[in-house]
Design a protein that fits this description.
By secondary structure, the chain is of the alpha/beta class. The protein contains 6 helices and 5 strands; from the N terminus they run βαβαβαβααβα. Strands 3-2-1-4-5 form a 5-stranded parallel beta sheet, sandwiched between helices.
Length: 140
């Protein structure tokens, strides 16, 4: 299973995601793409198999990923304080991969019905969802 983790800023969420994914699904191929080099480096140090930075890395990674994971902002142009370009958001949204998006009420984007839940709880739920995809082929 090819998992693409996308994160920005300091890569803290991506780092936690990579660590949990590698612990729960050791045979998964995890590619980490940071919107900046600091985020990419943090995720690589956490155990990602591959790491890259920037818009083109997101676009290329979305082509072959089975699962894309990151904050909900990765599908919203100009989110993450402007780190997500329209091309990045489009690549994530149009990918044939399953997307597991972590709800974050930041940057003037609010998810109705989502309470402010701790990041570790959100990441645990996210990884459980990815584990449930192992061996499934449902695309809807």
């Amino acid at each position: 299973m090819k998992i693409l983790v996308i994160d920005g800023q300091g890569g803290g969420m991506g780092k936690q995601l990579v660590t949990r994914i590698k612990n729960m699904i050791p045979d998964a191929e995890v590619t980490a793409v940071g919107t900046n080099s600091i985020a990419a480096q943090a995720m690589h140090k956490a155990g990602a198999d591959h790491a890259a930075t920037g818009e083109n890395a997101v676009i290329v990674g979305c082509r072959t990923a089975d699962v894309i994971v990151g904050p909900v902002g990765i599908v919203i142009a100009d989110s993450l304080y402007g780190e997500i370009s329209p091309a990045m958001a489009l690549a994530v949204a149009q990918s044939s991969a399953k997307r597991v998006l972590i709800p974050m009420n930041l940057c003037d984007n609010y998810i109705a019905g989502v309470n402010d839940t701790g990041i570790s709880s959100l990441i645990a739920d996210c990884v459980e969802k990815i584990v449930s995809f192992t061996g499934t082929t449902d695309n809807c």
